[in-house]
From TrEMBL:
Protein name, entry field: GTP-binding protein 8
Extent of Basic residues compositional bias: 1-18
Pfam families xref list: MMR_HSR1 (PF01926)
Keywords tagged on the record: GTP-binding, Magnesium, Metal-binding, Nucleotide-binding
Domain of life from the UniProt record: Eukaryota
Chain spans, region Disordered: 1-155
Keyword Nucleotide-binding among record annotations: yes
Encoding gene, per UniProt annotation: LOC120249938
């Protein structure tokens, strides 16, 4: 068993924390136990320790440990008493006598060090003397005392007037000898000044990380205002419900390590690996249970103005959201017909309302994205107007999937569209996309946040869906939800 720890000096008493771990065990946080060590300044060097976490010292004899300190050469062995913090019988006493050889070596090295310092100091002094001797022409020096200041004139009587002199070394001609070192009093004062550490205080009310030098008045502390936590902090404080958390876990949503996916049986070399059958030997996609999504996806109309919308003959599901949120990619992932709907990493690829037939029973409608896009303002405004008109007036529109990027959450434009759909009573469902880009817990938090935000809304359809077109996570669930619409839709 080995004890390793750091010690810091506090006056004569040394305190520190040592970690105890059994021999041969790699650094495993769980097994390490923390001790508080107090080493008194006296010769006995007793060290007291108490087991913080339960049940450790019971098993192992604490012996042959080392207290590693600031300097490894000061490592010692000694007497060590351990008391279980719970008061149970787990105390151990171990010899903590400084090893003789170590102690001897240490004192020898200390002596040698101090000697060498002394010698080098003497050498320096000799050197200085020589130098000063060479500077003065004939080696003669004169003291020049100039009165440079008076102190407390009012308080002091004439006789007791204190005068401050500045002493300079002058040569015969009255010139100042350069390189003259101050006398011993000055040296002592200098050494003291050097010894005195500059104390720097941190202002606890200052968030600018500025350091304050000692002496600067800090009495006027600004009033601590109740600052609203940042959006990020608010987001981190969200506690997702257990059902959302388990949904995220069950569907492997969120950014996952490849190993995790591999262990779950998925072939990570495939695109959308979660869409595959786990542990399958060949590249076999999971069977699409919903007939409608097995049908062929065919583009049949594009509209830039409402007058060119095709007649509403079959039920429609539309995909709306900000530019680049992943609308077109989701259409491909749902139908597993990659490439039918064009996608791009450049926001604003879809510039018209595109109608796709999925068999004979359903239309999927890819809407142009709003918000940021590489397009002129007036063009973007026109798209937005078109989208608004479509979602609020289209007959046969059974549901709008409003896609939200999981990483960024809902933006003002999303709220605008939601308000519009609330007014026009268009049923809409939130789909969080690109869940593979953030941690699972953050996916759950986002879902919780969105759900809470829309609690009071009437036309929203719950639950909040979470998908990733890239990994395939959550796609199957979305298919199931959307297929139900077709099943219950009246022609
Ligand atoms: N990591 C990740 N990237 C995705 C996902 N879905 C889409 N993308 C990427 O996001 C980018 C935009 O995807 P699109 O499907 O074209 O987005 P869009 O919403 O149709 O964009 P617009 O047509 O411009 O409105 C592409 O580079 C996709 O590869 C996803 O689930 N995960
Ligand atoms: Mg698109």
């Amino acid at each position: 068993m080995e004890i390793k720890g750091r010690r810091a000096s506090v006056g004569k008493t040394r305190r520190g924390v040592v970690r105890l771990k059994p021999d041969g065990m790699r650094n495993s946080g769980e097994k390490e136990k923390e001790f508080h060590v107090v080493e008194s300044g006296d010769r006995s060097r007793s060290v007291r320790g108490s087991i913080r976490k339960d049940g450790f010292a019971r098993n192992g004899k604490v012996s042959d440990f080392r207290l590693s300190q600031e300097k490894p050469s000061y490592a010692r062995r000694g007497r060590f008493a351990i008391d279980d913090s719970n008061g149970r019988k787990k105390s151990e006493t171990v010899d903590f006598k400084p090893r003789r050889r170590d102690e001897e070596l240490r004192s020898a090295s200390r002596e040698a060090l101090s000697k060498s310092k002394l010698v080098s100091k003497e050498k320096k002094m000799d050197h200085k003397k020589e130098k000063n001797g060479a500077k003065g022409d004939s080696g003669e020096k004169f003291l020049d005392q100039n009165v440079i200041g008076e102190e407390n004139k009012a308080d002091l009587s004439e006789g007791k007037k204190r005068v401050i002199y500045q002493t300079r070394l002058l040569d015969k001609t009255g010139k100042k000898i350069r390189g003259h070192k101050k006398d011993s009093d000055d040296e002592v004062a200098d050494a003291e000044r050097k010894k005195r550490k500059r104390v720097i205080r941190i202002d606890p009310y200052d968030i600018s990380n500025k350091r304050l030098d000692d002496g600067i008045s800090n009495e006027e502390k600004p009033e601590v205002k109740e600052v609203e936590p940042s959006k990020n902090a608010q987001f981190r404080a969200i506690q997702p419900s257990p059902s959302i958390l388990s949904f995220v876990e069950d569907n492997l949503l969120g950014r996952r390590r490849l190993n995790e996916l591999r262990n779950a049986g998925y072939n990570v070399k495939l695109p959308a690996p979660l869409d595959n059958i786990p542990f399958s030997t060949s590249i076999e996609r999971e069977r699409i249970e919903e007939n409608v999504f097995r049908s062929k996806l065919e583009f049949f109309a594009a509209a830039k103005v409402s007058s060119s919308f095709p007649p509403p003959l079959i039920p429609e599901i539309a995909f709306a959201g900000r530019s680049n949120v992943g609308k077109s990619s989701l259409l491909n992932a749902l139908t597993r017909q990659w490439g039918v709907v064009r996608t791009s990493d450049k926001p604003g690829l879809t510039q018209t309302i595109n109608f796709f037939k999925l068999g004979t029973k359903l239309s999927l409608v890819d809407l142009p994205g709003y918000g940021f896009a590489y397009a002129k303002e007036e063009v973007k405004d026109a798209w937005e107007e078109l989208v608004k008109e479509y979602v609020s007036t289209r007959e046969g529109l059974k549901r709008v999937c409003l896609l939200i990027d999981t990483k960024w959450g809902m933006k003002p434009r999303d709220h605008e569209l939601i308000d519009l759909m609330e007014r026009s009573r268009t049923p809409y469902q939130i789909v969080l996309t690109k869940t593979d880009t953030i941690l699972p817990i953050d996916v759950a938090r986002r879902a919780m946040q969105v759900q809470n935000n829309l609690k009071a809304n009437k036309s929203v359809v719950n639950p909040v869906m979470m998908v990733s077109s890239k990994s395939g996570a959550g796609i199957q669930n979305l298919r199931t939800v959307l297929a139900k619409i077709v099943r219950f839709a009246k022609p």
